[in-house]
Write a structure and sequence with these properties.
Largest sheet of chain A: 7 strands, mixed
Oligomer: heterodimer
Radius of gyration of chain A: 13 Å
Mean pLDDT of chain B: 97
Largest sheet of chain B: 7 strands, mixed
Distance between the termini of chain A: 36 Å
Order of helices and strands of chain B: EEEEEEEEEEE
Number of strands of chain A: 11
Largest interface: A-B, 25 and 21 residues
Structural class of chain B: mainly beta
Shape of chain B: globular
Structural class of chain A: mainly beta
Low-confidence stretches of chain A: none
Low-confidence stretches of chain B: none
Helix content of chain A: under 10%
Chain lengths: 107, 117
Amino acid sequence: DIQMTQSPSSLSASVGDRVTITCRASESISSYLKWYQQKPGKAPNLLIYAASNLQSGVPSRFSGSGSGTDFTLTISSLQPEDFATYYCQQSYSTLSTFGQGTKVEIK
Amino acid sequence: EVQLVETGGGLIQPGGSLRLSCAASGFTVSSNYMSWVRQAPGKGLEWVSVIYSGGTTYYADSVKGRFTISRDNSKNTLYLQMNSLRAEDTAVYYCARNLYGGDPSYWGQGTLVTVSS
């Protein structure tokens, strides 16, 4: 199975900060990576697909980059509604796998 | 508009069985790769199973031999039959469309399964 490793596991940031979350795959997954935001008690919400494509309706402060094994989710200016947990997911292999999550908390 | 609505969750004793349903609208289930993903309380997301448009199925090792994914094309509905349930199967179960490839995915709101005596 392809292992997905996210870092950091958690971070504290202030409104307006630039935030970067990384996701590393144990083998190449080309650009088959998705990023999700999840708030407590809610289903995951797709932010980015195919590593860098912004899902319709998602604010442009979210962006994704990378290919192969190393990927990044960037929030250019953190807003109050962005405090949540973020997951990456490889959509390359049959046995899909998720990163362990990154919790973004208020500093 | 794409919609996925899961039902069938509840409290079940260890060793029991439960069938989850995921009613889809806005697209055809049989033409898509449909998956189940679960999330144990306070934990991360875990892929459970997928059924391809051609009918091929795959399972996570943790549920292989106990869970069965299927679909009813006439009802445009996805199912997850869960047998021999264990405490560690306790989770919110989500159905999802297009987890794979380079297209956007869509998720339902989830249904909670609690395995406890």
